[in-house]
Design brief:
The complex is a heterodimer of chains A (152) and B (124). Chain A is an all-alpha fold and 152 residues long. Chain A is built from five helices and no strands. Chain B has 124 residues and is mostly helical. Chain B has one domain. Helices cover 85% and strands 0% of the residues of chain B. Classes of the chains: A mainly alpha (152), B mainly alpha (124). Chain A: InterPro entries: FluC.
Chain lengths: 152, 124
């Protein structure tokens, strides 16, 4: 089995347990800030190009979150499992770009607003599609990347 | 103006994303469990704040900077989805299912509370 990180590690930022929170984090924080801004701009641009009308199914946010999860799965395999990338790559692309691209807050507020305005079917469909699509997307990304990288 | 709104989004996310990174580091260090409390915490907090922003009549610059930028950068689905799969792969099926369900229901509750606070405090 390849070099899989333990669950108790902060597998996304690559931190070893017990490490200091702030010390030595200047470069990583800057990379996360820059990556987060780029990811958020991409999400914002897609929202402008494909806006969801009031009460409609939030397709754009759903696809952003599913694609972001899939790319996260692929990324982790390529920076931590089949090879070891430069330590700044995971904070920049994983925590920054993909973290800034995907959004949980818009998902929660949109779903809550659909529920509160009587769009029950749309709300439940959106909740189920996001939860299953995001978790399934991350799983698919991991499996596809491991298969194509020959890790299994 | 669209270009100015983009600057607000970028600025908000440049603060929100590192905040998520540092909160996650701090919580994962103090809560030495396999449950991803860091991601859970930032997602629920961001849902609450976004609810307040969208529940009230916030100016569009605030919606861009705090809502789309900061809350979007603070919260994440990519890490939540990935950590959920990692827990399942490690055999922690109960934690895996709890992680995604607790996040979803707590996020909905926080968004609901935030919308109420926003409408009450900053409503038209």
């Amino acid at each position: 089995m390849p070099n899989r990180p333990e669950v108790s590690d902060d597998v996304v930022s690559g931190r070893e347990p017990g490490a200091p929170v702030l010390r030595g984090q200047g470069a990583a924080v800057a990379a996360v800030a820059l990556g987060g801004a780029l990811g958020a701009l991409a999400r914002w641009g897609l929202g402008l190009a494909f806006p969801a009308p009031h009460g409609a199914f939030p397709t754009t946010t759903l696809l952003i979150n599913v694609v972001g999860c899939l790319l996260m799965g692929v990324l982790v395999v390529h920076v931590a499992e089949v090879r070891t990338a430069h330590p700044i790559v995971r904070p920049f692309l994983g925590v920054g770009v993909l973290g800034g691209f995907t959004t949980f807050s818009t998902f929660a507020v949109d779903a809550q607003t659909l529920l509160a305005t009587g769009h029950l079917g749309t709300a439940l469909g959106y909740l189920a599609a996001t939860v299953l699509g995001s978790v399934g997307g991350a799983w698919l990304g991991l499996v596809l990347a491991r298969t194509t990288a020959g890790a299994r | 103006m669209t270009a100015v709104a983009g600057l607000w989004v970028a600025l908000g996310a440049a603060i929100g994303a590192p905040t998520r990174y540092l909160v996650d580091r701090a919580l994962q260090r103090t809560h030495g469990t396999s449950f991803p409390w860091g991601t859970f915490t930032v997602n629920v907090a961001a849902s609450l704040v976004l609810g307040v922003v969208l529940g009230g009549a916030a100016p569009s610059a605030v919606v861009s900077a705090v809502g789309t930028g900061f809350c979007g950068g603070l919260s994440t689905w990519s890490t939540l989805g990935y950590e959920t799969v990692r827990l399942a792969e490690a055999g922690e099926r109960t934690h895996s299912v709890l992680n995604v369900l607790m996040s979803t229901f707590a996020g909905l509750g926080a968004a609901s509370l935030g919308l109420l606070i926003g409408a009450g405090a900053f409503g038209p």
